[in-house]
Amino acid sequence: xxxxxxxxxxxxxxxxxxxxxxxxxxxxxxxxxxxxxxxxxxxxxxxxxxxxxxxxxxxxxxxxxxxxxxxxxxxxxxxxxxxxxxxxxxxxxxxxxxxxxxxxxxxxxxxxxxxxxxxxxxxxxxxxxxxxxxxxxxxxxxxxxxxxxxxxxxxxxxxxxxxxxxxxxxxxxxxxxxxxxxxxxxxxxxxxxxxxxxxxxxxxxxxxxxxxxxxxxxxxxxxxxxxxxxxxxxxxxxxxxxxxxxxxxxxxxxxxxxxxxxxxxxxxxxxxxxxxxxxxxxxxxxxxxxxxxxxxxxxxxxxxxxxxxxxxxxxxxxxxxxxxxxxxxxxxxxxxxxxxxxxxxxxxxxxxxxxxxxxxxxxxxxxxxxxxxxx
Length: 375
Known about the structure:
The longest helix is centred in the C-terminal third of the chain and has 19 residues, at 356-374. The chain has 375 residues and is an alpha+beta fold. The chain is built from 8 helices and 11 strands. Helix 2 (80-94) packs across helix 6 (188-200). The chain has helices spanning 26-37, 80-94, 118-122, 142-149, 171-184, 188-200, 257-274, 356-374; strands spanning 43-50, 53-61, 73-74, 211-213, 253-255, 285-290, 295-299, 304-305, 326-329, 334-339, 344-350. It has an 8-stranded antiparallel beta sheet, sandwiched between helices. The chain is 28% helix and 15% strand.
């Protein structure tokens, strides 16, 4: 479709990818083409590897000849495992225990959550409700962001940390990035770049160029490849004196589907070497009701873990995924999945803005099609 009319399903030769020319993933390709025809998205990438070998690197778009597998999208919450890895890596290198109370390192922390630990932020068990995301966070100074993230409003439910689970849409980014900068003495974007290089290893080191972290201004040319997403960041402290170089979490973390999938695969393969045997994909939180998702969820350190064993409403990825599958999804159509039982790694990125139900249908539809094609 890229560079062709909507009715033409032929992809130009320059966008044929590793296994796409053989059409070994017919169900996946058909579902992606259907999504483009329906207007759900204008750009879609799907990457699949198995046992470390790339199987599919699909990039389809409507009327965009410059779009390809290496184009970058805002990663949104799919970048949370990357931040979690960088934090755990920094903790290991500095001898900082995950049981360290946040009050020891976050001067703005509200007294109501003084008992919360680094581990509780990583597993979304701070004991308070979530702060909603809005584009206003992109235009605030870093000092203002971290101060707000550490505050507990009267409308927030407050409970004993580790006993109340609620996915932290915003606090996760700012509290952990502040901690990361304190431990590494560099900005979060710098530490994230180093972490992704470590995860990719030598075999896929070239994919590190398909990540960008920080304020990018016009995202369509600098940060988001050809996905057409513009990130406009203005306001006091967002550049210049801002220690985070304008980085504000997932909206200012960019990457391709294949780069994300390969870093997640590296998370599984390399974490015993660089994370002091503290596997991020271990079930650090089990069988707890999550106030944000309104169902029972298991969590690793910053990663979602397939939780279907608690009931169909707790499904994270798709019914075909094994109980050991982990990764992350986002409110918009970006997702990554590693299924150790099959040696499978999947990356998905698309640029449409769907409601929550439609987004889950799209992401789950792509993942189910991948499993179907793999037999």
